């Protein structure tokens, strides 16, 4: 009898563990690419605390909302936002049919491949290019053009696919949060339609949890078939003050965990910090010129200046990439 | 030994069933308020088919997106949209401080309680009133005013709380779809912020799965605390062509199941019908003047005219409320 009971108990235990993935118990280090130290410890302590029902800071699973910036937070963004390259590749493809672009300073520099000037136009310039180059396409055509590009284009410095340049420690953090019942959203200044075709495969984040900038679309019936056609008009710019606005619109709850890397994420951090639940604000500081890039207060791309001051003042957690991460990209392991 | 094995098997079976709610096996009729007949059968047949892995029309769980209109679909909408009453109650409360409203025909009729004229302004008029009466409030203040109203206001005809006037058969349908792995969204012409405070409790639909019309908001720091302040400007009108636009923006996938009751839902139906997966389009036809209301082609509220023609032409399923439902509201059981 005793032996049967033991076997039975073990089996039931295994069934309980394996039958519901979201409640799986993790014994191994869930964050192996993070060096031991205060940064990693503060993440683990926070997650332990808000998932412990006995804690006064316990967070109901339905309110475990985590928001992550994308460019420079989940993947690299240098020497310019990856979506820039996508848009410029489109401009060059289409330039022959658009002689009028030579009269537009932004497009002219793009055609001439003067990246430094284009970069200075920032995410706003990017959206300007996107909305012009993609007007008239259907959303399905745009999705296809993103998929084709993301499957073939290579980064000018590493010669890797762009989706290979996601941060291994962040992939682990996403998995760790999911295993602890968090629902993860991307909240990016980048285009919502540029991200959705690949975020599920790369990050495990489905389209409905991707928030970003967008251009307007119009519903049309084409020979009885409904399509959404892209218009040359910005719909929403999801950066800075736009991030809490979008979080409110799409989610309707404040995050308890917010992660970003630039001043464009500061208002999202402030929004999370104002949660009545205890919340966690995490900034990634790019400090590794050797393995990735080192930049902050003076950078045109991903500037981290006011955000760094406020993070220090408020005691938010700051990842020092060089010190805290023992691996950068999945391929570099 | 045999006895042990049997007990063991039964226990494991129970554990497997009860440990993962989403895979629970349902033996009882999941739709008891639906009369037997072709409408109910078509719903059950569709769900059986798309959840059967052996079927050529199997739908991957991550793509089981269902979109439901709210007014007239999940709850009643007569003699005028319930949010109208909320807005008018606000207008009357605030009228003394706004003498200028007497010069605005829409507001004047509202203050004079001339509901017939106000009703003719439709959902657009409602949004006009909402954006004016709520400008300057923070989103948190607005949420509180909705909560206060929904907990106390009563319907002029039934004298029931508005949230008591949800359709019992639809509550069963939502549960049934969820039990079969569908992710349910509300896609309503009504205000997103008017619905979110109570949809989770009433329908089991969390805020992040509620899509609707909205007015613009602005991020502000008030003495260091971030707030979103409502502006007197429409952000998005989620009706007719707006519904597929919003579905694309918020979800990024086409529904496989769409349910509505008016011409305002027709484009959402067309969008679902164009899914590459087999999809199901369900119109509720209000045919029960005794237990609810009977209206369609000529109604100012919830007009169903073009939608009815197209539903018949395309062979979409049409609920005949009087014939198909043996119960209307939860309290009438």
Element pattern of chain A in H and E: HHEHHHHHHEHEEHEHEHEH
Number of strands of chain A: 7
Main beta sheet of chain A, described? 7 strands, mixed
The average pLDDT score of chain A comes to 91
Q: pLDDT below 50 for ≥5 consecutive residues: which ranges of chain A?
A: 5-24
Q: Structural class, judged by helices and strands of chain A?
A: alpha/beta
Q: Sum up the overall morphology of chain A in one term.
A: globular
Write a compact overview of the structure shown.
Two copies of one chain form a homodimer. Chain A is of the alpha/beta class and 333 residues long.
Account of the protein in words:
The structure is a homodimer of 333-residue chains. Chain A is of the alpha/beta class and 333 residues long. Helices cover 41% and strands 16% of the residues of chain A. A seven-stranded mixed β-sheet of chain A has the order 4-3-2-1-5-6-7, sandwiched between helices. In chain A, helix 9 links the parallel strand 2 and strand 3. In chain A, helix 3 packs parallel to helix 6 and helix 7 packs across helix 9. The radius of gyration of chain A is 22 Å and the shape is globular. At the A-B interface, helix 1, helix 9, strand 3, strand 4 and helix 10 of A face helix 1, helix 9, strand 3, strand 4 and helix 10 of B.
């Amino acid at each position: 009898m005793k032996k049967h009971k033991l076997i039975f108990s073990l089996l039931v235990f295994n069934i309980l563990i394996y039958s519901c993935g979201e409640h799986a118990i993790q014994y191994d280090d869930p964050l192996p690419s993070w060096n031991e130290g205060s940064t990693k410890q503060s993440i683990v302590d926070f997650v332990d605390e808000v998932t412990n029902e006995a804690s006064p800071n316990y967070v109901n699973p339905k309110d475990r909302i985590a928001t992550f910036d994308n460019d420079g937070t989940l993947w690299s963004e240098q020497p310019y936002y990856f979506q820039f390259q996508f848009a410029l590749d489109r401009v060059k493809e289409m330039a022959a049919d658009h002689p009028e672009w030579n009269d537009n300073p932004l497009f002219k520099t793009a055609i001439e491949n003067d990246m430094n000037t284009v970069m200075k136009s920032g995410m706003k310039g990017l959206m300007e290019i996107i909305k012009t180059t993609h007007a008239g396409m259907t959303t399905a055509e745009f999705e296809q053009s993103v998929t084709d590009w993301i499957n073939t284009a290579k980064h000018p410095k590493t010669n890797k696919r762009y989706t290979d340049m996601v941060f291994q420690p962040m992939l682990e953090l996403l998995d760790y949060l999911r295993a602890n019942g968090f629902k993860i959203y991307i909240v990016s200044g980048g285009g919502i339609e540029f991200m959705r075709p690949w975020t599920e495969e790369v990050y495990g984040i489905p389209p409905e949890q991707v928030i970003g900038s967008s251009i307007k679309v119009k519903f049309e019936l084409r020979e009885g078939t409904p399509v959404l056609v892209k218009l040359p008009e910005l719909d929403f710019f999801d950066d800075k003050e736009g991030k809490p606005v979008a979080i409110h619109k799409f989610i309707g709850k404040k995050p308890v965990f917010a992660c970003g890397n630039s001043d464009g994420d500061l208002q999202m951090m402030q929004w999370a910090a104002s949660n009545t639940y205890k919340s966690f604000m995490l900034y990634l500081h790019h400090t590794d010129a050797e393995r990735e890039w080192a930049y902050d207060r003076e950078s045109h791309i991903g500037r981290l200046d006011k955000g760094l001051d406020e993070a220090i003042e408020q005691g938010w957690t700051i990842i020092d990439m060089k010190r805290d991460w023992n691996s950068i990209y999945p391929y570099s392991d």
